[in-house]
Design goal:
The protein is an alpha/beta fold and about 325 residues long. It contains ten helices and nine strands.
Length: about 325
């Protein structure tokens, strides 16, 4: 079952390196999905506290073996994605038999890890243990303790790196200023009256230092403005903002459509009324209403327009304004 599931998920691309997400350099909040009573959680918390005590940790306690464990693990991963405050998730437990680790071989867990928008580190069992969750996760840690070391850097190492960069910056600044001072001193010795030239060069050093500071501040301001512009752009391209714009546009177009439709209907009503009046004026019913009748010769129904079309004894169908009648011709007159 393990091999069949592994092969099927591999064909679907759940193990591809191209879909794996990088871990954040320094997460603010770490989500942990494991048992609240196992040794794994204590190992992880001990390592995190030792390496970076400031990091926030959220624990979603689940069963890590037995019936129903896989559903709880998958649900915890999805809950962390809904919470949206976690930067990285550690999913794991301590060592055990194949049966003990089996929940991490379940398809429901694999798909929850694959669908997670938050990077997931798998830390199941010991270094020799491999589960389906290890292949799907963005990063596999050989043990829960190793997972804690992978997701967060050592605070002391980071502080040392910052101190080192600060010293290098200070050294570079001193070196640049020292070169300027050496140059000033050399020029001052080359002239007979160095006081004016020395004053000029000292002033130039101050100007350059001031320009360096301004350049640094300008660069910082430009980066802040760019960040603000990008933030505003992200806000403007928010789907909710675009949806609200489309909704407003739809309302405007709907109002214009209603107005246009009312105008067309009013115009059509006027046209229909004029046409009806014309039809009524030309309708034979209007003529019949004045006392006239239409005579049709039976049985063929030909309309009689003159007396020469009929003879005595012919049957006529007379249509009046209201109703009709059948009569027999007694005589025809010209």
């Amino acid at each position: 079952a393990f091999i069949q599931l592994k092969e099927r998920l591999a064909k679907e691309g759940l193990f591809d390196e191209s879909v794996k997400k990088p871990l954040p350099m320094l997460p603010n909040c770490i989500g942990i999905v494991t048992s609240s009573t196992g040794a794994a959680i204590h190992d992880i918390l001990k390592i995190l506290k030792r390496r970076f005590v400031n990091v926030e940790v959220l624990i979603c306690p689940v069963r890590v073996q037995g019936e129903g464990a896989a559903r709880e693990i998958a649900a915890a991963v999805r809950d962390f994605n809904l919470y949206k405050k976690v930067d990285v998730i550690i999913v794991g437990r301590g060592g055990g038999s194949l049966e003990d680790l089996w929940p991490f071989n379940e398809e429901i867990v694999a798909r929850a890890i694959y669908e997670s928008r938050i990077p997931v580190v798998s830390a199941v069992g010991h270094e020799v243990d491999y589960t389906i969750a290890d292949f799907v996760a963005d990063l596999r840690a050989p043990t829960p303790s190793a997972a804690a070391e992978l997701v967060v850097k050592n605070k002391a190492e980071l502080a040392a790196e910052v101190d080192n960069l600060s010293r290098r910056l200070e050294y570079s600044m001193r070196h640049i200023l020292g070169e300027f001072r050496s140059r000033v001193e050399g020029l001052s010795r080359a002239v007979k009256d160095p006081s004016m030239l020395l004053g000029y060069l000292v002033q130039r050093v101050d100007d350059l230092y001031e320009r360096l500071n301004r350049s640094f501040l300008t660069g910082m301001m430009q980066r802040r403005e760019r960040l603000a512009s990008m933030t505003n752009h992200l806000r403007l391209t928010n789907p909710e903002v675009e949806l609200e714009r489309c909704r407003e546009r739809l309302l405007r177009l709907s109002a214009r459509l209603d107005t246009a439709m009312r105008g067309i209907l009013d115009q059509n009503r006027e046209t229909v009324a004029v046409t009806i009046a014309r039809f009524q004026a030309l309708s034979p019913l209007a003529t019949l209403a004045r006392g006239y009748a239409i005579a049709r010769k039976l049985p063929d129904g030909v309309v009689v327009r003159e007396s020469s079309q009929i003879d005595a004894g012919d049957r006529l169908d007379l249509t009046f304004h209201r109703g009709s009648a059948v009569c027999i011709v007694e005589s025809a007159r010209d």
